Amino acid sequence: MAEYKDTLNLPNTSFPMKASLATREPEVLADWQAKKIYEKIRNARAGSKHFILHDGPPYANGHLHCGHALNKILKDIIIKSKSLSGYDAPFVPGWDCHGLPIELNVEKKIGRVGDKVSAREFRAKCREYAASQIDIQRDEFQRLGVFGDWYNPYVTMDFRYEANIVRALGMMIKNGHLQQGFKPVHWCIDCGSALAEAEVDYDEKTSPSIDVAFFAVNPEEFIQLFKKNSVIKPVSLPIWTTTPWTLPANEAVCLNPAIDYSLVDTDDSYLIVATELVESTMARYGVSQYTILSSAKGKVFESLKLKHPFYNRVVPVVLGEHVTTESGTGSVHTAPAHGPDDYLVGQTYNLPLINPVKANGCFADDVELFAGLSVLKANETILGVLAEKGVLLAKENIRHSYPHCWRHKSPMIF
Known about the structure:
The protein has helices at residues 21-34, 37-44, 66-84, 100-110, 119-143, 159-174, 219-225, 278-285, 340-349, 379-389, and strands spanning 94-95, 154-155, 186-188, 193-195, 200-215, 235-241, 252-255, 260-265, 270-274, 291-297, 305-307, 314-319, 331-334, 392-405. It is α+β, with helices and mostly antiparallel strands. It is 31% helix and 20% strand. Pfam families: tRNA-synt_1, tRNA-synt_1_2. Its EC number is 6.1.1.5. InterPro entries: aa-tRNA-synth_I_CS, aa-tRNA-synth_Ia, Ile-tRNA-ligase, Ile-tRNA_ligase, Leu_tRNA-synth_edit, Rossmann-like_a/b/a_fold, Val/Leu/Ile-tRNA-synth_edit.
């Protein structure tokens, strides 16, 4: 008797019962490449209307991850759908070959540029490393089934590409679109490089929290703004900061033009503090006996002169909307070289833009009192100078959110 299965009308196919994708996918890709499928698609659409997708390149470092796969598969879907719709849709992949990740990986192998490794040798090794990563990623992208001109990509380390960058930059300069100057940036001392905003992490850090008195050059000018005539004590604007190392670069003290500031009479001086912050400020100074004599808007103090806390330098009072009464004293120490708000205020008032800190995170050799000191280790020395000058009103350590390098997890500076 015949088997029941022989009585059934079952399909007969050469397809294997098991997919065995790990084995068969490379065979399919090899078959596509041998038959030059991508080239045939291009030839079939030659002369048709073009559709060009500019590939924002991946970075030539490491194996592909899910983000790479999502990016390239979506682009591949678009390109193939446009080809099916009759367009001539080439795809030229590319790679970004410049940046710290490549340099850091090369450093791990041969060390930093210095006595043992020349800059020329280091750059050559970076090129070799980037090329090896391109080979890895090219194979992995093709394993995803992405069609493209994989052996004629654009790479940013190509000398022709770099030359065109210089040409384009030259045109921008020639046409007057480029302005040369200095601006504060996020700086990682360990990287020896500026970092983009996306490369900055915010972690908890312990920092000194200090209040510093900026004494008036002409106390009478300040007192008169409060409708007072006699000056029997020194007058100062106290500032609050968690970055004492920026004080050598101070060029101004900033007030908010719309905030009310009070003239506070204490045992040994007059303090000018934002009215909303008088109570918390006096508590921080340990002053229980004080009198609020009068108040005035911040705008009236513009351009009055103050003494730098430890340098023989006069700094102006300036105004800025970024000053708030959320914390501190309502007066902000302003160093245009060390912060974006400070920089913008400095541009408005044409303040000197002097950066006393070198790329290695140390004060320059000509910085009075602190030459050669690491800025992240100089705080105690600076606090000592402030105390000696009699301008340190309060100090404590606080835990707060602070920018860190995403690679080294180390505190950054501006």
